[in-house]
Amino acid sequence: MKQSDTEFQIEITCYGMTAYQLKELLEKQFSDEIKKLDFSIKMKPSRFRTIDPATLVAIIGGSTGIIAALITGLINFAEKRKSQMIVLQGKDGSRIEIPALTPPEEIDNLIEKLKKMNAPQIFF
What is the mean pLDDT of residues 17-22? Predict the structure, then answer.
């Protein structure tokens, strides 16, 4: 995924939920900041049959506040689903595991690491 200085894209995968369901949930249930995100559904090629061959892509216009709202919202959602953590992963295999109980003051540090990743993905 190509990223410019003003646009940041993050693929989001939630196990047990389709990309369409996740998009609807994010648009309805999170803060006003997250409503500023532009979401798109990307079909992913697969050699195997999968339940949902689509991925949700969050397109962020360079605002750290919006990225923080997304990460915080996903952490809260993961906690409600009894998930232990959210995983941020770059295309190069670099990986950051964020426990569901991460305090808000640590999120800014994680966002800086996320911005440095090549083609970041979020799994939970």
Answer: 84
